[in-house]
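Retro notes (design track)

What went well: tokenization of the new backbones is finally stable.
What didn't: we kept losing track of which sequence belonged to which structure.
Fix going forward: every design gets posted as structure first, then sequence, in one message. First example under the new rule, 419 residues:
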């Protein structure tokens, strides 16, 4: 039978030195602490022991210091001259001197050595966790690029150059995205958490407005150089985004700089965001002008800001309303997010409407149409009979969130008014 290999700590030291990204002073302190802890367990105290660790060689030397006395009362801390001579073979010691006896690892016994290895591995893991946590805590909000290691229905797992795991949950992916193993991916570092003393949980995001802002900083040199500032970014991920920018140099057109020649700069960002529509807008502190610019290409007739906290009423001609609201209300929603106010779009009759057949306010039909239905229609900018009749039944049902039967009843009532 093959003789069992004796247990040593050389391999543990080697792994610790070569594979762990830990500062030398920290490494020395951890190793000494682990040994001193085991010494205290084995000998009852570590007060009279010295531990000398050579990290480069992966070795350690342990010395037990004895006071030389005539009569020993504490065998772990005292020795007689005869004992010192027998141990060292040296006659030069006297009563009152101190003798340092070198201990071998075997002094701890097999179980003690196993304890040291386990404690060392545990401390290494704790330090690694702390290092990873600090590294990524300092990088929250920064752009990250890595390779997909595994992809599941609920998340994608991404590895960095050190093999640390970063998580991209489905909720932080752009709708419709599908990742597979080995895909290269860019995202923003959203958060870093310690969960139940496990490895830090690092969350990535591709839906955060900050992700789009970082992409602009990367693609537009004027932003990176501080000549143009991204003032605010709002997004409906996968649908549309609005980026408000401002130039500190009158000679630089911030919108043109962000879009690039023939759209060269912004096209790369659009592709990264899976063809998300991006509107670049000139920033202004005037909220009315900001709303007007944000609702472009729709032309605004009048804006009623109301009181702080009220909904902003934006009036447009009927043919402009659809462009202003956008698909699913996305455009007007983003415009409201830019100024931190909720916006309602109202239809304004053209000045020559008097020459046409007279229109009727929806409020006039309160005896025939339930008030909650009228409220829903007014919320999408349809405050007159003709403004409702100008839309298809499918469009009304979707935008006002009404049942098809309800929409058909309303249309029949309104059509009857003009027959």
């Amino acid at each position: 039978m093959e003789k069992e290999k004796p247990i040593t700590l050389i391999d543990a030291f080697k792994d610790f030195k070569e594979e762990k990204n830990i500062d030398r002073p920290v490494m020395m302190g951890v190793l000494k602490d682990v040994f001193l802890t085991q010494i205290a367990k084995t000998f009852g105290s570590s007060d009279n022991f010295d531990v000398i660790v050579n990290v480069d060689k992966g070795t350690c030397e342990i010395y037990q210091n004895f006071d030389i006395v005539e009569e020993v009362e504490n065998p772990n801390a005292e020795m007689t001259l005869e004992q010192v001579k027998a141990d060292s073979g040296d006659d030069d010691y006297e009563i009152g001197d101190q003798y340092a006896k070198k201990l071998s690892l075997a002094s701890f016994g097999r179980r003690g050595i196993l304890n040291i290895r386990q404690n060392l591995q545990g401390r290494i893991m704790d330090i690694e966790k702390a290092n990873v946590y600090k590294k990524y805590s300092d990088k929250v909000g920064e752009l990250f690029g890595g390779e997909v290691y595994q992809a599941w229905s609920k998340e994608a797992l991404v590895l960095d150059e050190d093999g640390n795991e970063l998580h991209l949950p489905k909720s932080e992916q752009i709708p419709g995205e599908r990742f597979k193993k080995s895909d290269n991916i860019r995202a923003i570092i959203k958060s870093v958490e310690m969960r139940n003393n496990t490895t830090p949980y690092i969350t990535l995001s591709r839906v955060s407005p900050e992700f789009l802002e970082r992409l602009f900083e990367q693609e537009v040199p004027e932003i990176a150089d501080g000549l143009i500032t991204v003032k605010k970014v709002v997004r409906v991920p996968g649908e549309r985004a609005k980026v408000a920018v401002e130039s500190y140099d009158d000679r630089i057109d911030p919108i043109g700089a962000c879009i690039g020649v023939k759209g060269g700069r912004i096209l790369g960002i659009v592709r990264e965001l899976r063809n998300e529509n991006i509107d670049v807008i000139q920033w202004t502190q005037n909220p009315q002008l900001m709303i007007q610019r944000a609702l472009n290409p729709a032309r605004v007739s009048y804006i009623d800001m109301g009181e702080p906290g009220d909904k902003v009423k934006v009036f447009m001609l009927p043919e402009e309303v659809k462009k202003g609201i956008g698909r699913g209300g996305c455009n007007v929603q983003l415009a409201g997010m830019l100024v931190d106010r909720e916006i309602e779009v109202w239809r304004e009759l053209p000045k020559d409407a008097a020459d046409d057949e007279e229109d009727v306010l929806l409020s006039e039909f309160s005896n025939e149409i339930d008030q909650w239905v009228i409220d829903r229609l007014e919320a999408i900018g349809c405050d007159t009979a003709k403004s409702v009749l100008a839309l298809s039944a499918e469009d009304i049902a979707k935008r006002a969130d009404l049942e098809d039967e309800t929409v058909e009843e309303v249309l029949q009532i309104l059509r009857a008014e003009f027959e």
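Added context from the reviewer: The two ends are 106 Å apart (CA to CA).
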